[in-house]
Design a protein that fits this description.
The protein has helices spanning about 15-35, 40-50, 60-65, 70-80, 105-125, 130-145; strands spanning about 85-90, 95-100. By secondary structure, the protein is mainly alpha-helical.
């Protein structure tokens, strides 16, 4: 129970959100650095992961990632320019395009997934497996209750 009063507000460290932000920013920053060494941004990694194994449109990726179609178009353009993603016509719709990983993109994806695994290990290896499982369950529960957009990138 907080001892907060009007004249003595609770400190930052008393809030779960403070600790979540601190850890999240650190995990995200370290992951972005690892991906950057491979020439890929976090948004590009997520897009590649969503494209992998699915016939998906840029608008579907935009919906999943909670980004505008224009922003996704730029991400896909960058991936296509590097030969990681290709666009092909959607059957039955001459204007729509389906996104697919190229062979080069498919070879890079496991490398990037290993970086994601290494990043998780770097930050969470000190937690017993039961605590990692509980933390995942708690965070998923919060996301579900708050109806937060989740991206299936496992």
């Amino acid at each position: 129970v907080s001892m907060e009063t009007k004249d003595n507000p609770s400190g930052l460290e008393a809030h779960l959100g403070y600790w979540l932000r601190l850890v999240s920013n650190s995990v995200s920053s370290a992951f972005a650095e690892k991906l950057g060494a491979q020439g890929v941004s976090v948004a590009e990694w997520v897009a590649m992961r969503l494209i992998h194994g699915a016939d998906v449109s840029a608008s579907a990726i935009a919906d999943e990632m909670g980004m505008t179609r224009g922003a996704i178009s730029k991400i896909v353009d960058r991936l296509a320019a590097r030969g990681l993603v290709e666009r092909s016509p959607q059957p039955g719709d001459g204007r729509a395009r389906i996104l697919k990983l190229t062979a080069k993109g498919a070879r890079l994806l496991p490398v990037l997934a290993a970086l994601a695994d290494a990043n998780d290990a770097e930050f969470f290896h000190g937690l017993p497996k039961a605590d990692r499982t509980a933390l995942m369950r708690i965070l998923k529960d919060i996301a579900t209750r708050k109806r937060l957009k989740t991206i299936p990138v496992d």
